[in-house]
Amino acid sequence: MKYKIFILVFIPFMIGCTSTSNNEKTVVSSKAIENVITTLASNSLNADKALIEKGVRQVAKLWEKQDGSEEDFIRFCTDNFIANPNEKEQLFLKISDYLEAIFGNFNEMSLRLQRNIH
User: Fold this and answer.
1) Per-residue pLDDT at 12
2) 32: exposed, middle or buried (C-beta count within 10 Å: 0-12, 13-18, 19+)?
3) 5, 19, 36, 39: which one has the fewest Cβ atoms less than 10 Å from its Cβ?
């Protein structure tokens, strides 16, 4: 009997907690996304089109109204695209170093704060 009551209470709760899909209208149209992809692919012939497409679509998903208009999105993608593998590597190493410094310092702070506990 307790099991049936639990199920009757639990199922409506779980139905109410289901995630809703994010079907909101995106700021960037699919036509603009395709234009950016073709522009970047034609400007850098040795770049991998699959990586360009993946990156542009990821930026488009994260692009919000306060980030700017569709024209701002196009300008952002074209201005910040890096085709040169050496420049990409340097950027990756720079960002990795920044993240390591941030998270490493947080780890050091948490270890120091726990020093007297252990």
Assistant:
1) 57
2) buried
3) 19
Q: Is 1 exposed, middle or buried (0-12, 13-18, 19+ CB in 10 A)?
A: exposed
pLDDT at 69: 94
Q: What is the Cα gyration radius of the chain?
A: 23
Q: With a cut of 50, which residues of the chain have pLDDT below it?
A: 6
Question: Is 85 in contact with 48 (CB distance < 8 Å)?
Answer: no
Tokens of 98: 């920044």
| H-only helix segments in the chain | 2-16, 30-43, 49-62, 70-80, 85-113
- In the DSSP assignment, the letter for residue 114 is T
Distance in angstroms (rounded) separating the CA atoms of residues 51 and 77: 13
> 44: how many CB neighbours lie within 10 A of its CB?
15
